[in-house]
Structures are given as C-alpha cells and as structure tokens.
Design brief:
By secondary structure, the protein is mainly α. The protein is built from twelve helices and no strands. The structure holds heme C (HEC).
C-alpha cells in the first residue's frame, strides 16, 4: 500500500537527519509554543463569552468567570498558565535559534520570529491588564507612563490639558481664569483671551507670545492691556501656582490662535 503522509508528517519535513530529529536539539520549543497558542486561542474565545470590556464591569466579570461560569475556573487557569508558559517557551525558542545560528539561514523567518516574540510579550501584558484588578491597573499605569516618558506629543497634550483645567477651575488657592476671561470674545473683568496667541507676540517689543503670556500671569501689572488700564488682574498667581502649572497655562493659551 502506498504511504499517505498524514497531517503530522507535514509538521516536519519528510526527511530529517537523525541527529536533528531528537528532542535535545531543538528542545521542541517552537512546537510547544504553537500548542500553547492554540490553547490560548480556544480558552480566550471561551472567556470572551463572559468578559465585560468596560472599566466598571471588567473586574466583576473576571470573578464571574472564575467562580460562576461552568468550568470557568479551569478555562481561566488554562488561559493564565498557557500564557505564562508561552512567554517562556517563545523566549527559549528565540534563544535556541540565536545560539544554534539558525537565524543565518532563514533571515525572514528569524525577523518574523522576533516580531512574534514582541507580539507575545505585548499580548501577555494586555491580558494581564484585562483582569482590571489592582496589579493589572498598576501595570497599565506603568506601561502608559513609559510610553508617555518617551512620547513628546503625549506629554505636550497632557500639559495643554492641565492648563485648560487650571484655566477653567483654578488650582488650590489660585482662582480660575474664567472668572475674568472668556475664550469666546465676551469681555468680562479682563479682555477675552480668544485668539490671544495670535496677538501676544506683538504686545511688548522683544517678548515672544509665550514670554508675554507667562509675564501676564506672573507680573500682570507690568503691562496693562489697552482699554483695561483701570482693571486689575489677580496679582498672586506667581505664588499660588507652581512653575509647572504656569507653563501648562502658557501651553494651553498658546493653542488659542
Ligand atoms: C480678577 C480677574 C482676573 C483673573 C482671575 C485673571 N485675570 Fe488675566 N487679566 C485680567 C485683567 C483685568 C487683564 C487686563 C489688565 C492687565 O493687563 O493687567 C488681564 C490680562 C490678561 C492677559 C493679557 C491679555 C492680552 O490680551 O494681552 C493674559 C494672557 C491673562 N490675563 C491671563 C490670565 C490667566 C492665564 C489667568 C488664570 C491663571 C488670569 N488671567 C486670571 C483679569 C484677570
């Protein structure tokens, strides 16, 4: 009878040198990783039936999976331990490929593998966060802070948002700027700060828009806006606000073009 290759013979090439077919050479880590991935996929899909991806419901839905759902404890534990094991097996697999020089022959496979390694670590991290318990939320906080620390646009956006907040509600002892300033052209006690970034650079010779806005907050009496010579701005922002808070206000007002 002719030999029909079964599904399993596809996993390995039909001919394999004897010395390479032993468990000792590759440690079987690639294959184990695939098996773990399939377990993760199946258990993950099962968990999706009960998981609630909302900040309010996530933690309780995880408890539901663990305590109420039929075999939920088993599915959850399988998912958890398969993910931890997969991080180990994928890492060991990558080390094996590097140490045995496997990356030299099949460069594309190697790069693909590195990408999968990173994906695995990221997936492990997001899975951890999904639990939405204390440790998961702290992990998320640390993770987002790392991205923030390296991402200037995120930092700038944070600063602008802080400035907007101080502008509208004040901070500690500092009164809100909205008490005296609108942003829509309406004159209150002080001039409206609509388009203030556009005119700020032309107010005092030698002062850039940012310098002028900073000086307006810290030493308001140094320059009186025409038409407001008799009105007085709150004078104590230089003591009531920290340097960071002043810079946040400057950043926010510079967006009012
Ligand atoms: C008690 C009312 C009052 C409060 C509170 C106040 N201001 Fe003023 N502000 C004024 C007045 C009045 C002027 C115009 C007179 C002057 O230049 O001193 C002014 C001027 C300014 C100017 C110059 C505007 C221009 O067109 O050149 C800026 C910028 C400014 N304020 C920013 C702020 C910020 C930011 C805050 C909040 C941290 C704030 N002000 C809080 C009353 C106030």
């Amino acid at each position: 009878m002719p030999h029909r290759p079964s599904f399993f013979s596809h996993l390995h090439p039909p001919t394999l040198p004897r010395r390479e077919s032993g468990f000792g050479y590759t440690w079987g880590m690639g294959g184990i990783s695939i098996a773990l991935f399939i377990i993760l996929l199946v258990t993950g899909v099962l968990e999706m039936f009960f998981y609630a991806p909302t900040t309010a419901g996530a933690y309780d839905s995880v408890k539901l999976i663990a305590n109420v759902a039929p075999y939920g404890w088993l599915v959850r534990n399988l998912h958890y331990w398969a993910s931890q094991a997969m991080v180990v097996t994928v890492t060991v697999h990558a080390l094996r490929v590097i140490m045995s020089g496997g990356y030299k022959k099949r460069r594309f496979n190697y790069l693909l593998g590195l990408a999968l390694l990173i994906l695995t670590l990221l997936a492990d991290f997001t899975g951890f966060v999904l639990r939405w318990d204390d440790s998961g939320v702290w992990a998320l906080t640390v993770g987002t802070n790392i991205i923030r620390a390296t991402d200037n646009t995120a930092r700038a956006a944070d600063q602008t948002r802080l400035g907007e907040q101080i502008f509208s509600v004040g901070a500690d002892r500092a009164p809100a700027c909205t008490l005296c300033h609108s942003l829509d052209g309406v004159t209150l006690v002080g001039p409206s700060l609509q388009h203030v970034a556009a005119r700020a650079g032309a107010r005092v010779p030698g002062q850039s828009a940012g310098d002028y806005i900073r000086a307006s907050i810290l030493t308001p009496s140094a320059f009186k806006v025409p038409g407001f010579e008799t009105s007085t701005m709150y004078p104590n922002y230089s003591v009531d606000l920290s340097p960071e808070q002043v810079e946040a206000l400057v950043a926010f007002l510079l967006t009012q073009r």
